[in-house]
Q: What sequence folds into this?
C-alpha cells in the first residue's frame, strides 16, 4: 500500500514542471546601468553597500565595489581590496592597459580567490554568497572577489553526541569549517569533495565527501544522481535532504545516519561510505546506513575492546528494554501470570490492587505522559525546568500512585524505559513508536501479539535497503566476517577488513600489524648507536 | 519478482526452518516415542533419498520449477493436473502447520481466545512477508534459525539437573514393522515436505550448490530434532508420549534452583517463528505455483487471497487436534509418500523416457 502511495506521490512530483528559469541577463558595459540592475534585483536593502571609486591611471574610469554588509570580512575588503585600489602608486606601470579588470585582478588586488563573470544572476549569486563585486565602467564583466567572512559559532562538542574520551570537537554551521575539520582527520589526497547548490531560493551549498579508492564508485554516482533529482525551494537542515534521498521514505527507521562528529564521519568514510554535508547545519549524513550503526559509539573505539564490547551489549539490552519492557510487563501481567514467580506475583497484585484501569491502558497512559514530559523538557524555557521536574516527579509519579490511579510497578516500568530510551539516540523515534505498538499488541494478544509485532518489524527491516545495502546486514543476511564489529568490538588490530557490503572495492584496510619491521630495526639500531 | 535470488546458505537455513517447522511441537511417529531420536536418523536417510530423487529432477531441468517440469514432461493438460495435486499438497502442508500452532497457542496460553483472533495476525504476517518476497523471507529467516539453534543447544545445559538416563530405557523395544512405519512417518513429515523447495530452487543464485545446500539443511535439522527429542525423552520418560505437545511440556519441566523456571514461553515463541517461516514458504510457493499454472504475469496479487484461503481452510481441513493426530499417525505416511516419493519418481521416470532435448538443455 505504501509503495502505491509513494508511486503516486512521485508521479505528482514529476508532473510538476520545473520552475521556469529566469531569462539570462548579461552585464552591460555601462556602470550606471549595472548598478541600477543590482538595485532592482536586491531592492533597497540597507545591507547592500555600493562604494564608488575611480580606477586606473588619471583621469581614470568610474568603478564600484559592491558587497553585502555582514557577509564579508571587513578587514579583507578594506586592507586588501580598497587600499590597493585607491593607492595611486599602484597604477604607475599600467599606463596603457585596455583590460582594466584583468590588470586589477593580476597585479593589484591582494585576494587569493577571484573570478570573472559576465552574467548578472551569477554575479548576484556570488554577492549573496559573500563575495565582493568589482565593476568598471566600460567593461561588461564583473570581478568576484572571495571575501567571505561572517560571524560563526566556535567549534564545540556536539550537545547531542557527547563522549567520555576522544576528540571533543564537532561540526559547525559553516560548510568550509566542516570540510576542513574532516581534512584535518584524513590527510590523504584520496579525500574528495564535490559541491553543488540545491534549493531554488536558498541556494544551499551541498558537499559530498568520499575516499577515492575505498568507496564504491557506483555509490557516489547514485548519491550524486539522487541529490540532483531533488527539486525544492529551500534546504535548512540535513533532514530536508534525508527525506528526499532516503530509500524508504515511509519507514520508521532511518536509512541514513546522521552525526555532528568529524571523527565519526572520518571513520565512516574510511569504511567506504559517502558523507553529505549541508551548509548551514552541523548535521552530516552518511550513506549507506545500517541498523547496527545506531548501536555504535565513538567511545567504543576509544576504550579497551573488552570494555567496549560489554558497553555495546548494554546498549543492545537497553534498546530491547526500551522497546519491549512495557509490552512484556503488560503481557505478563494480563496473560501469562503463571510465568511470574509467586512471591513477585503477590507483590505485583497488591501494588495494583484497586487501580481502575486495565494494565495495558495504565502503561500506555503513563507512557504518553512520559513522552509529553520529555517533549516539554526539550521545548521549555530554562527557568521553567524546576517546575516541570517537580510536577513530573511528584504530582504525576508519586501522587498518581498514592491516589490509587496507577500501580507503582507501572511507574517503575515507565521509568526504566525512560532511562533506556536515551541509550540509543539514533533510534529514539522508531523506539517510541515500536514501544507504543508493542504495548498495545501485548495488551491485546499477550506474548503472541508481541511476537507478531516483532516478526512484522523483522520482515520490514529485512526488506529495507540503504543505497543497495541490506539494512539489517550483517545480521540478515548473516555476514560472519562483519560480526566482529557487531556482536563484539574486536581489538582494533583485528578489524582488518571493511564491512563487506560497503567497502568491497577494497576490502582490506591498510597492511596490518604492529609497527613495520624496518622501523623497529631502525629504532634498535639507533639505541645501540 | 523474477530477479529475486537467494544464496545457497539462505536455502540451507530455509530448509532447516521448514523442516523444524511444525514437527518440533507436534512430532510424527509418536508411538515410537522413546526410540524417536534414533529413528530420526533412519528417517533422515529416507528423507535424503527422497530429496536426492527430487534434486535429480531439478538437475535434469535446471532453472525450472516443479510445475514447469510437469508441463514439459506430461504436456500441458496432464502437467497442469499434476501441478494442481501439488498445489493441494502445499495448501495442506501450510494449513496443517497453521492448525498445529494455533492449537498449541489455544491449549497452552490463550484458552479462551477465539481461533480467529489467533489466526488473523498470523495470516497478516504471512501475507506481508510473502509480499516482501522470498529474498526478505530468506534474509529474516537467518537470525531466526540461528536463535533456534542456539536455543536447542542451550537446552542441553538447562536440563542437566532433570535429565535421567533411566528415562531413555527401554530402547530397541519395538518390532521391526513399527520401526519402519514410524520412520516412514517422520521421513514424509517433516523431511519429505521439502519437496516444496522444488518450486524455489530456480531462485538460488548458484545452482551447482543446490544439492549440498539442501542436504546440509536436512541433516542439520535432523540432528537438531534428534537432539531435542533425546533431551525430551530423558526428561519426560515414558509418559512423554501421552502429551500432545511433548516439546512444550519438556520445556515446562526446566527448573534450575527455582530461579530459571517456567521458561516454556521462550521456546514457544521461538518455535512459532519457525512456523511462521514454514507457512510463509507454503503460501509463497502456492502463489508462485498458481501464477505458473494459470500463466499469470504477476504473483503479488495472489498472496492476499491465498492467505485468506489458508485462514478459512485450516479449520475445515484440521477441525480438531485429535483428528490431526489420527491423520498424522494413519494417513500421512501414505499421503506424503505419494507426493514426496511416487510423484517425483514418476516424473523423473517419464522425463528419462522422453529423454532428448532436456538433456541438451541441462548440459
A:
Amino acid at each position: 500500500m505504501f509503495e502505491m502511495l509513494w508511486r503516486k506521490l512521485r508521479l505528482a512530483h514529476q508532473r510538476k514542471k520545473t520552475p521556469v528559469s529566469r531569462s539570462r541577463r548579461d552585464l552591460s558595459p555601462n556602470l550606471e546601468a549595472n548598478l541600477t540592475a543590482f538595485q532592482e534585483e536586491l531592492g533597497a536593502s540597507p545591507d547592500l553597500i555600493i562604494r564608488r571609486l575611480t580606477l586606473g591611471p588619471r583621469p581614470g574610469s568610474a568603478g564600484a565595489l559592491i558587497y553585502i554588509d555582514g557577509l564579508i570580512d571587513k578587514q579583507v575588503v578594506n586592507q586588501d581590496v580598497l587600499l590597493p585600489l585607491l593607492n595611486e602608486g599602484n597604477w604607475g606601470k599600467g599606463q596603457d592597459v585596455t583590460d582594466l579588470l584583468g590588470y586589477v585582478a593580476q597585479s593589484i588586488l591582494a585576494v587569493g580567490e577571484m573570478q570573472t563573470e559576465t552574467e548578472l544572476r551569477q554575479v548576484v549569486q556570488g554577492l549573496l554568497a559573500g563575495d565582493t563585486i568589482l565593476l568598471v565602467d566600460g567593461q561588461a564583466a564583473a570581478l568576484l572577489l572571495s571575501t567571505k567572512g561572517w560571524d560563526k559559532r566556535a567549534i564545540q562538542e556536539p550537545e547531542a553526541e557527547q563522549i567520555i574520551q576522544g576528540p571533543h570537537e564537532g561540526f559547525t554551521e559553516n560548510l568550509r569549517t566542516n570540510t576542513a575539520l574532516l581534512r584535518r582527520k584524513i590527510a590523504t589526497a584520496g579525500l574528495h569533495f564535490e559541491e553543488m547548490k540545491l534549493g531554488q531560493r536558498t541556494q544551499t551549498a551541498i558537499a559530498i565527501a568520499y575516499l577515492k579508492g575505498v568507496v564504491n564508485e557506483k555509490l557516489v554516482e547514485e548519491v550524486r544522481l539522487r541529490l540532483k533529482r531533488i527539486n525544492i525551494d529551500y534546504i535548512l537542515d540535513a533532514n530536508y535532504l534525508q527525506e528526499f534521498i532516503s530509500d524508504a521514505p515511509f519507514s520508521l527507521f532511518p536509512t541514513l545516519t546522521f552525526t555532528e562528529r568529524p571523527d565519526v564521519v572520518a571513520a565512516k568514510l574510511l569504511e567506504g561510505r559517502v558523507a553529505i554535508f549541508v551548509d548551514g547545519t552541523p548535521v552530516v549524513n552518511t550513506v549507506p546506513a545500517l541498523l547496527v550503526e545506531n548501536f555504535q559509539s565513538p567511545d567504543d573505539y576509544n576504550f579497551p575492546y573488552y570494555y567496549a564490547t560489554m558497553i555495546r551489549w548494554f546498549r543492545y539490552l537497553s534498546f530491547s528494554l526500551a522497546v519491549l519492557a512495557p509490552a512484556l510487563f503488560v503481557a505478563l501481567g494480563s496473560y501469562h501470570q503463571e510465568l511470574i514467580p509467586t512471591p513477585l506475583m503477590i507483590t505485583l497484585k497488591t501494588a495494583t490492587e484497586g487501580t481502575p484501569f486495565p494494565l495495558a491502558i495504565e502503561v500506555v497512559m503513563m507512557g504518553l505522559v512520559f513522552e509529553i514530559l520529555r517533549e516539554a523538557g526539550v521545548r521549555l524555557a530554562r527557568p521553567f525546568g524546576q517546575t516541570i521536574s517537580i510536577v513530573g516527579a511528584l504530582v504525576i509519579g508519586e501522587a498518581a500512585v498514592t491516589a490509587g490511579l496507577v500501580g507503582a510497578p507501572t511507574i517503575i516500568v515507565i521509568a526504566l524505559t525512560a532511562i533506556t530510551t536515551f541509550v540509543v539516540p539514533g533510534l529514539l523515534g522508531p523506539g517510541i513508536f515500536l514501544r507504543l505498538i508493542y504495548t498495545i499488541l501485548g495488551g491485546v494478544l499477550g506474548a503472541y501479539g508481541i511476537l507478531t509485532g516483532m516478526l512484522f518489524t523483522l520482515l520490514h527491516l529485512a526488506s529495507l535497503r540503504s543505497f543497495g545495502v541490506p539494512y539489517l546486514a550483517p545480521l540478515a543476511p548473516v555476514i560472519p566476517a562483519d560480526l566482529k564489529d557487531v556482536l563484539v568490538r574486536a581489538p582494533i588490530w583485528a578489524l582488518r577488513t571493511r564491512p563487506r557490503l560497503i567497502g568491497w572495492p577494497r576490502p582490506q584496510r591498510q597492511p596490518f600489524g604492529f609497527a613495520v619491521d624496518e622501523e623497529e630495526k631502525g629504532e634498535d639500531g639507533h639505541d645501540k648507536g | 519478482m523474477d530477479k529475486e535470488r537467494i544464496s545457497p546458505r539462505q536455502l540451507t537455513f530455509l530448509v532447516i526452518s521448514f523442516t523444524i517447522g511444525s514437527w518440533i511441537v507436534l512430532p510424527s511417529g509418536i508411538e515410537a516415542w522413546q526410540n524417536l531420536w534414533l529413528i530420526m536418523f533412519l528417517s533422515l536417510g529416507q528423507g535424503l533419498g527422497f530429496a536426492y530423487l527430487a534434486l535429480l529432477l531439478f538437475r535434469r531441468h535446471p532453472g525450472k520449477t516443479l510445475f514447469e517440469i510437469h508441463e514439459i514432461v506430461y504436456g500441458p493438460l496432464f502437467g497442469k493436473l499434476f501441478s494442481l495435486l501439488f498445489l493441494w499438497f502445499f495448501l495442506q502442508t501450510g494449513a496443517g502447520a497453521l492448525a498445529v500452532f494455533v492449537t498449541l497457542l489455544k491449549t497452552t496460553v490463550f484458552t479462551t481466545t477465539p481461533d480467529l483472533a489467533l489466526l488473523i495476525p498470523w495470516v497478516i504476517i504471512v501475507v506481508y512477508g510473502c509480499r516482501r518476497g522470498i529474498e526478505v523471507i530468506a534474509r529474516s529467516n537467518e537470525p531466526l534459525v540461528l536463535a533456534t539453534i542456539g536455543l536447542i543447544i542451550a537446552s542441553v545445559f538447562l536440563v542437566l539437573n532433570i535429565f535421567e538416563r533411566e528415562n531413555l530405557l527401554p530402547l530397541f523395544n519395538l518390532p521391526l514393522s513399527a520401526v519402519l512405519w514410524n520412520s516412514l512417518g517422520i521421513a514424509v513429515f517433516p523431511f519429505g515436505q521439502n519437496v516444496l523447495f522444488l518450486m524455489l530452487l530456480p531462485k538460488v543464485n548458484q545452482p551447482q550448490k543446490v544439492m549440498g545446500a539442501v542436504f546440509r539443511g536436512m541433516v542439520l535439522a535432523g540432528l537438531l530434532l534428534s537432539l531435542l527429542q533425546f533431551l525430551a525423552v530423558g526428561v519426560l520418560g515414558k509418559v512423554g508420549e501421552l502429551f500432545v505437545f511433548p516439546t512444550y511440556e519438556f520445556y515446562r519441566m526446566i527448573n534450575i534452583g527455582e530461579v530459571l523456571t517456567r521458561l516454556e514461553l521462550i521456546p514457544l515463541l521461538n518455535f512459532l517463528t519457525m512456523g511462521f517461516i514454514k507457512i510463509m514458504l507454503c503460501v509463497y510457493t502456492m502463489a508462485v505455483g498458481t501464477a505458473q499454472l494459470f500463466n499469470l504475469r504477476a504473483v503479488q496479487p495472489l498472496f492476499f487471497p491465498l492467505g485468506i484461503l489458508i485462514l478459512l481452510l485450516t479449520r475445515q481441513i484440521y477441525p480438531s487436534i485429535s483428528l490431526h493426530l489420527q491423520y498424522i499417525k494413519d494417513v500421512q505416511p501414505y499421503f506424503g509418500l505419494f507426493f514426496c516419493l511416487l510423484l517425483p519418481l514418476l516424473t523423473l521416470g517419464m522425463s528419462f523416457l522422453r529423454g532428448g532435448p532436456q538433456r541438451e538443455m541441462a548440459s
Remarks:
- Chain A touches chain B through 26 residues (CB under 8 Å).
